[in-house]
Design brief:
170 residues, 7-stranded antiparallel β-sheet, 3-stranded antiparallel β-sheet, 10 strands, globular
């Protein structure tokens, strides 16, 4: 897949403040899939899935302040929480991808056994000074193509900043 052009479809979230492109074939997950894959009270805001290789992409705008200069330490802390739960499963260690347009923190890890393991990528960025948490999940056998897809999504991401009006009262 390294030399293949990825065909994409555009999405806009949070009133188009966050825009990116997903590979063709991703669609909004239905309730049955959401209940199966996310059986928790708190779920991601947006969940897209593609049946091929059980691929899932999620996006959530958290009520946690995050500025670009905090991304590196924040992604490292998130990785530490995952490492505590799944020791020795980190595939790509926490890093900042600041050469792709939007400053992004990223890492990936595996869960499960061989076969039937799963690959997970976690990425964060600042969207209007709040943390946007994104994830990508798929069968571990699809890891190489998944990394390409994640980097493609991140390279195509645009975050529009809101103009703020300030009133000075004297």
């Amino acid at each position: 897949m390294q030399n293949e052009k990825i065909q994409t479809q555009g999405i806009g979230l949070w009133d188009d403040v966050f825009q990116t492109e997903l590979p063709i074939g991703f669609e909004i997950a239905d309730e049955r899939l959401i209940k199966c894959k996310f059986p928790y009270i708190s779920k991601p805001e947006y969940i897209f899935w593609k049946e091929q290789n059980s691929q899932i992409v999620t996006f959530s705008l958290l009520h946690k302040e995050l500025r670009n200069e905090q991304i590196e330490s924040a992604i490292w802390e998130i990785q530490q929480m995952i490492t505590h739960r799944y020791p020795e499963n980190i595939r790509d260690y926490a890093c900042c991808l600041d050469h792709i347009g939007v400053d992004t923190g990223y890492f990936s890890f595996w869960t499960g056994g061989i076969p039937n393991g799963e690959y997970h990528a976690v990425f964060i960025m600042s969207v209007q000074d709040r943390m946007m948490l994104g994830t990508y999940h798929c069968n571990a056998d699809y890891e190489g193509q998944a990394k390409d897809a994640v980097l493609h999504i991140l390279k195509r991401t645009k975050v529009h900043t809101a103009e703020r009006s300030w009133m000075v009262i004297r």
